[in-house]
Amino acid sequence: MLNNKDRAIQILKSTYGENAEFRDGQLSAIVSVLEKKKTLVVQRTGWGKSIVYFIATKILRERGSGPSIIISPLLSLMKNQIDTAKKIGLNIVTINSDNKNDWDRIYEDLNRYDALIISPERLSNGVFMSNFYNISNIKLFVVDEAHSISDWGHDFRPDYQRIVKLLDNLPVDISILGTTATANNRVINDIKNQLGEDLEIVRGNLIRDNLSIQVNPKQTREERLAWILDNLQDNEKLNKGQGIIYCLTQRDCDNVAEFLNQNDLSVASYHSGLEPNASQRNLELFDQGEIRILVATVKLGMGYDKSDIRFVIHYQLPSNLIAYYQQIGRAGRDGQLAYAILLHGAEDEEILTYFMEETCSKPDLLSEIISYATDGIKYYDLYSRINAKASKVKVGLNYLLVHDYIYKDKSYYRTNLTNHFDKEKERIKQENLNITRKSELKKLKEYLTTSSCSMKFIADELNAPDFAESCGICANCVGHKVMKTDFSLNAYKSASKYMTNRHGKILPRKQWSTGARIPNNEVMQEGWVLSNDYYSEIGQLVKKEKYDDCVFSTKLVNHSVNFLKRRKAVDTINLIVSVPSIRRPNLVTNFSVALANDLNIQYINAVKKNAEGKEQKTLLSSGFQQENIQNTISINKTYIQGKRILLVDDMVDSRWTFTVIASELLKAGATVVYPFALVKTGGN
């Protein structure tokens, strides 16, 4: 029998050709795994980390071992891994939300597969875990994107911490392999604390010397769209080959993709807000070269492996430099020259801060959930009592479940009395984490203005070994812009027109916050938003005029009139009513009166604010928002009998203000109510 090194080399050459050679560190990592050592591989994107665990798996299976278990965070990554494994002659399978119809067949005999790929969230599924323990003779457990285990990692996922508990219940002679491209010293030390101090680190050069980086100056959204359009059409460095454009939000992905498609470019979106089939289909078309550009959120990130991507453009700032390294690493994996262009705008920091808040679990909220769960509580009952967004409550519940502070008993959440929750300890942990996140944001802003090598700056943030002084091909290294940063007037006009016409819909709510159905005769109609993008030029004009000028301009009135005249339903409206405010009593009222005059429709001050109440944006749960409106308004019924009403407000987010007032107007005798707002706020 060949020794570990010789057999690994033999498999590599039989798969990739006689001239194939391992990259630095690959063979030593394979041998480390086969010698049953705990191993963490920290290597640059495109280095070939999956080769390590697939060749190790093949050798282990030849020696009678059971299937390898591979924890992988993304469906797109799972697909790439399956393709790689087939080349090596492995029969592997994945269990995920997209192949539910195959689960029973897979569970029938898990031991016939060479490897099983699952997401960390699968470890919380009782059916899966009961089948998991039927797998015999597991000898390799792989944690791909292992930085996600650590609270300090750029993409921390609480479910990854289930892995640590699971490993404690597996035989001690199992090899454990973690792989990542994005772990700095702080993250590595945290992984060591969780997996054991005997963790062997295989760490290599993170400098990508075929990836030319450029940071553009700060631009508005319209200017960034114009720049992208110009360069994708006319710049010979970007107008050939495939590329990825990263956006922070799903809405931005759709907007950028739609704008480019309207200008005859082959583009599709990829994010978790799409139907699963649509998202997967877009990715497949991109893989096959039938779509030239994919506009994606971080859903397309870790481990996505398409070798011939020629450019990655960031429409906005990434969450931090470590995430940025991960994302630009999608380009140039074939070793050929590729480009990474970072665009950014004034709104980016606000969006990033919002995401930081959304993903953290505040100790006071966690403590509150635990107190309600002491006697057992269902989700909707819990949510109705806590002033927090549904997303935050769910994040908190998941955090507490993963750490065994609570458990699920059918539909009830109950406190685990054997595991004490230390709020002060969690508070200190959260404060330290927030300090780290702010430090990362500060470093990201410093990166925007550095004159040193862009790639080296990022590698230093990752505490990479100092294999090279610089990449030699970024804009800073060559001493001039890799490509122009300005754009044509025609492209800007096209982008400005597009963003001005980013109108939106206000969909009617059909249920109250309690889950009870709103009677059909109290439900508002589908309405309209002048600007669906808070950070567009129109959106920012609304913001300025509301908070700074305290009056809406004729420009906004004219835009609104022209927009509403194109809506057929407006022809039937015979009354305009405004949403009242005690803080700014004249702002929306005066705007609504001007709107009514220009549309030649009667205006009536039919809704009265009886008490100031709280600002809706300070109330985070649906129940609190609904109650805040219901308790502070009354309706003047005199002039609304049989009227078809346009209900006007400046901004819309949760829709509870519109929902409650429309219900009251309809109960008071109005025939229909159409909501209209100047801009949509909120984060998606």
UniProtKB/TrEMBL annotation:
<dbReference type="InterPro" id="IPR011545">
    <property type="entry name" value="DEAD/DEAH_box_helicase_dom"/>
</dbReference>
<dbReference type="GO" id="GO:0005737">
    <property type="term" value="C:cytoplasm"/>
</dbReference>
<feature type="domain" description="Helicase ATP-binding">
    <location>
        <begin position="30"/>
        <end position="201"/>
    </location>
</feature>
<dbReference type="GO" id="GO:0005524">
    <property type="term" value="F:ATP binding"/>
</dbReference>
<keyword id="KW-0347">Helicase</keyword>
<dbReference type="InterPro" id="IPR027417">
    <property type="entry name" value="P-loop_NTPase"/>
</dbReference>
<dbReference type="GO" id="GO:0003677">
    <property type="term" value="F:DNA binding"/>
</dbReference>
<dbReference type="GO" id="GO:0009378">
    <property type="term" value="F:four-way junction helicase activity"/>
</dbReference>
<keyword id="KW-0413">Isomerase</keyword>
<keyword id="KW-0378">Hydrolase</keyword>
<feature type="domain" description="Helicase C-terminal">
    <location>
        <begin position="224"/>
        <end position="377"/>
    </location>
</feature>
<protein>
    <recommendedName>
        <fullName>DNA 3'-5' helicase</fullName>
        <ecNumber>5.6.2.4</ecNumber>
    </recommendedName>
</protein>
<keyword id="KW-0238">DNA-binding</keyword>
<dbReference type="InterPro" id="IPR001650">
    <property type="entry name" value="Helicase_C-like"/>
</dbReference>
<dbReference type="GO" id="GO:0030894">
    <property type="term" value="C:replisome"/>
</dbReference>
<dbReference type="Pfam" id="PF00271">
    <property type="entry name" value="Helicase_C"/>
</dbReference>
<dbReference type="InterPro" id="IPR000836">
    <property type="entry name" value="PRTase_dom"/>
</dbReference>
<keyword id="KW-0547">Nucleotide-binding</keyword>
<dbReference type="GO" id="GO:0006281">
    <property type="term" value="P:DNA repair"/>
</dbReference>
<dbReference type="InterPro" id="IPR029057">
    <property type="entry name" value="PRTase-like"/>
</dbReference>
<dbReference type="GO" id="GO:0043138">
    <property type="term" value="F:3'-5' DNA helicase activity"/>
</dbReference>
<keyword id="KW-0067">ATP-binding</keyword>
<dbReference type="GO" id="GO:0006310">
    <property type="term" value="P:DNA recombination"/>
</dbReference>
<comment type="similarity">
    <text>Belongs to the helicase family. RecQ subfamily.</text>
</comment>
<dbReference type="GO" id="GO:0043590">
    <property type="term" value="C:bacterial nucleoid"/>
</dbReference>
<dbReference type="InterPro" id="IPR004589">
    <property type="entry name" value="DNA_helicase_ATP-dep_RecQ"/>
</dbReference>
<dbReference type="InterPro" id="IPR014001">
    <property type="entry name" value="Helicase_ATP-bd"/>
</dbReference>
<dbReference type="GO" id="GO:0016787">
    <property type="term" value="F:hydrolase activity"/>
</dbReference>
<dbReference type="Pfam" id="PF00270">
    <property type="entry name" value="DEAD"/>
</dbReference>
